[in-house]
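We treat protein structure as text, and this decision shapes the records that our systems exchange. This encoding replaces a full spatial description with a residue-level series of whole-number codes. Below, we set out a record of this kind in full and without editing:
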Amino acid sequence: MTVSQLAYIGIGVSDMAAWERFAKDMLGMEIGERSQDGTVYLRMDEYHHRIALHPSGEDDILYVGLATATPAAYEEGKTALTARARAGAGARGRHAQLVHISRNT
């Protein structure tokens, strides 16, 4: 499976204020949207977000999104991830999503 980049990540956190400070001061990220459920979306480029902070109290990764460079790599990756999920290779109910990012400019 060919992954071209980490598209996004969702993190469950117990201390939103500390995570927001870390994201802004240490990672240089911009606070984007804040949703009604308390989720904070962090930006670093033209995308809506790269990191989503969820006030779940878990202090753990909830999900990741992996990007592919081509539609063919997306299909290959989707097949591989589906096979791994069916084989029970997931970790504690976490999930990964594969997305194809087109850079048509």
Observations:
- The chain has a mean pLDDT of 83.
- The helical segments are 16-26, 71-86.
- The longest helix spans residues 71-86.
